[in-house]
Specification:
The structure is a single chain. By secondary structure, this protein is an alpha/beta fold. Helix content is 22%, strand content 19%. The chain contains nine helices and 20 strands. The strands form six sheets. Strands 4, 5, 6, 16 and 17 form a five-stranded parallel sheet that branches. The protein has a four-stranded mixed sheet with strand order 2-1-15-14. Strands 7-8-12-10 form a four-stranded mixed sheet. The radius of gyration is 21 Å and the shape is globular. The termini are far apart.
Length: 413
């Protein structure tokens, strides 16, 4: 059995290196029908594989780069986004679009709405992001629904995001058909939870879950049923110069800025010089906290990409839209999904945002509302906080709900 070195990173940011099998192929137990260009046709069906849609020549395929961030849009990581994102432009002059897989706790929903107004994609990453990771493996369909649909509700009510189309499972731990049934029934456009070690060179393209996939199932359970029109945006494993594999960028521990930059460039080139499958820079912003010099490396990397006329920094949903309607580079300037000529989603002014304070006491009931973004300490609040202080602060352009939104009560009513 083939083994590869991989690096496993846990939420606390501790890395270990181990060896594990590359995993078995996953497929469907209701049909043995093979996916072909005859029974699976764009725009709503695309077979898994390493070939560009319609067999388009590589020289005509735009190299799509998907920069995504997981977890809460919290105060600790917010400054990094303002430092690396605003100055990066695509060849048509539009700003790049990143994708944020947002979990609920500690998220600032004013910042969520601000990101959406800057044309970034907001996607779903569950309400609780609870531990241990095995909970997600064993969760029932009803529990997956509470986590997935509940967070979509929270993003809509308190982040003003009406178009949540994607989902990524916490810890990249799939829930098999229980998870994918919820996504399919909820009419999500795509999932991005499944990793591949087999299909990295050349890398696999995103595909729909209509028919059995050629992709390996590294972290079971993977889906076994058919979900017509539901896309999978796989996490193609990254490789360092020593042959160690990583599912996400922040699992790599660079010693210097140059080493971080070279890691990003090495993996970009593996896509760019082979089949130009979309390159995923999948990460947690905590990488910038752990290794401060990586922010400079990321800025260098994005600046290089922004200077290439055949490279486009797009959201996951924008990448899917190109696959659905393949457009050669010679006509890409007119591709509607990558334009920025429509009005951007709106966001409230800073002084109109509400700070909603919920103490540990009294079942998470609303304790105080502060208008604007001024930070208060416990002594400035007119309500009793008990011994543990404010448990949750939620900032939103919407009105503060009477209870902190949570699993089982996403509206906060």
């Amino acid at each position: 059995m083939e083994l590869r070195l991989i690096a496993l990173t846990f939420i606390v940011g501790i890395c270990t290196v181990s060896a594990r099998p590359t995993g078995s192929r996953f497929g469907w137990n209701i049909s043995n029908e093979t996916c072909t260009s005859e029974n699976c046709r764009l725009p709503d069906c695309f077979c898994s594989g390493v070939t560009a849609p319609t067999g388009m020549s590589t020289s005509e395929v735009p190299q799509m780069v998907m920069l995504t961030f997981d977890d809460a849009i919290a105060a600790q990581v917010w400054p990094y986004f303002g430092e690396i994102l605003p100055s990066v432009k695509n060849p048509n002059g539009c700003s790049m679009s990143a994708t944020f897989f947002v979990s609920h706790e500690y998220t600032n929903y004013y910042h969520v709405q601000l990101l959406r107004s800057q044309r970034h994609e907001i996607a779903d990453h569950s309400i609780t992001h609870r531990v241990p990771s095995t909970w997600w493996k064993n969760a029932t369909k009803e529990e997956w629904s509470e986590e997935i649909n509940g967070q979509r509700t929270i993003l809509r009510l308190f982040g003003g995001v009406e178009d949540v189309e994607g989902f990524r499972a916490p810890f990249l731990q799939p829930g098999g058909d229980r998870q994918f049934e919820v996504l399919y029934e909820g009419k999500y456009l795509y999932d991005s939870s499944l990793t591949t070690l087999h299909f990295t060179n050349p890398p696999i393209w995103p595909f729909t879950l209509d028919y059995p996939s050629i992709m390996d199932c590294n972290i079971p359970p993977c889906p076994t049923k058919s979900y017509p029109g539901l896309w999978e945006v796989p996490l193609v494993d990254l490789e360092d110069k020593n042959g160690v594999y990583y599912s996400m960028v922040d699992e790599f521990s660079p010693a210097t800025e140059d080493e971080a930059y070279e890691f990003l460039e090495l993996n970009f080139n593996r896509h760019y010089t082979t089949n130009r499958a979309p390159f995923g820079v999948f990460m947690h912003a905590a990488w910038f906290q752990r290794f401060p010099y990586t922010i400079a490396a990321m800025k260098r990397f994005l600046a290089k990409l922004a200077g290439m006329q055949d490279v486009w920094l797009v959201s996951a949903s924008q990448a899917i839209e190109w696959i659905r309607k393949p457009t050669p580079l010679s006509h890409i300037a007119d591709f509607p999904a990558w334009q920025c000529n429509q009005p951007a989603p709106k966001v409230c002014a800073e002084h109109e945002a509400h700070q909603c304070y919920y103490p540990d006491m009294d079942g998470g009931k609303l304790c105080h509302v502060e208008q604007g973004l001024k930070t208060l300490n416990a002594t400035q609040l007119p309500c009793s906080l008990g011994g543990s202080g404010v448990s949750h602060l939620m900032v939103t352009c919407a009105e503060c709900p009477p209870h902190y939104p949570w699993y089982g009560n996403p509206t906060g009513k």
